[in-house]
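Worked example 3 (structure in, sequence out).
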């Protein structure tokens, strides 16, 4: 018998995140994704994880759209009020 343990995901739904660095392009999280210029998301802008995708990709909603990003491109935002 094997014990199957689900891997811990870096981010959960509703987590506030920001970009670690500006990517070369942004891929929209639409049913038919499109590549968009990276300047749609400011480096200090906070987004919310709204979807989990395969291969550690996340749909993150920012002010100007929802984009697919890899976990390594994101960092959590620590709220000063909650800790």
């Amino acid at each position: 018998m094997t014990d199957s343990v689900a891997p811990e995901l870096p981010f959960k739904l509703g987590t506030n995140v920001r970009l670690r660095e500006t990517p070369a392009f942004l891929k929209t999280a639409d049913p038919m994704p499109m590549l968009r210029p990276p300047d749609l998301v400011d480096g200090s802008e906070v987004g919310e994880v709204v979807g989990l995708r395969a291969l550690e990709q996340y749909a993150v909603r920012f002010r100007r759209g929802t984009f697919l990003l890899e976990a390594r491109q994101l960092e959590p935002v620590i709220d000063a009020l909650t800790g």
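Notes: The chain has a mean pLDDT of 89. The chain has no helices and seven strands.
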